Amino acid sequence: MKDLYKRLTETINSLPGIEVNGSNLSNSFDKIKSNWGGTCLFFWSDEKDAEGLFFLTRCMDTRYWEFGHLWRIEITCGDQIHSNGDKPITYNIYRPFTEFKFEPETEDQIDKEISSLIDNMYYHFHHDSFMTGYSMDRTKYDLKEWKREMKLNDLGI
């Protein structure tokens, strides 16, 4: 799996109540394109803490992300209760590839979009009005890179 895709997975996993439990990103781009028709990450969201799900949804929204119109979060229902007792709901982050475009998607384009999503999540995490306006707790986010910068900011560095 590419380092960029690992970063995306780690960033999403750092959100409170979110756990990525699968993706097709370890496959080659050609295999993703032919077998899946797009990129897909599967994740579970804790029923008792929707902050991470809200954060991710906001970061992917068309109004706040230039590629939001191309990506979506889908929801599916399974049969197995999650280990913590939550209902069997799985979310899918899906970026479908379109067959009928004049210029079909390239791996570079998808990488650009993924990098942009990671940057947008970083931006939202550091956006004081957004985080405080929705009473979001930065200490619940578990990405070392973000926590380090938060501590440096607190120290005025």
Q: Number of helical segments? A: 6
β content, as a range? Answer: 15-25%
**Secondary structure tally: strands:** 4
Topology order in helix (H) and strand (E) letters: HEHEHEEHHH
Q: How many separate domains?
A: 1
Shape: globular
Fill in the keyword field for this structure:
157 residues, alpha+beta, 4-stranded antiparallel sheet, 18% strand, globular
How would you characterize the overall build of this protein?
- By secondary structure, this protein is of the alpha+beta class.
- The chain has one domain.
- It is 41% helix and 18% strand.
- It has 6 helices and 4 strands.
- A 4-stranded antiparallel beta sheet has the order 1-2-4-3.
- Helix 1 packs parallel to helix 4 and helix 3 packs across helix 4.
- The radius of gyration is 16 Å and the shape is globular.
- The termini are far apart.
- The relative contact order is 0.16.
- The model has no long low-confidence stretch (mean pLDDT 89).
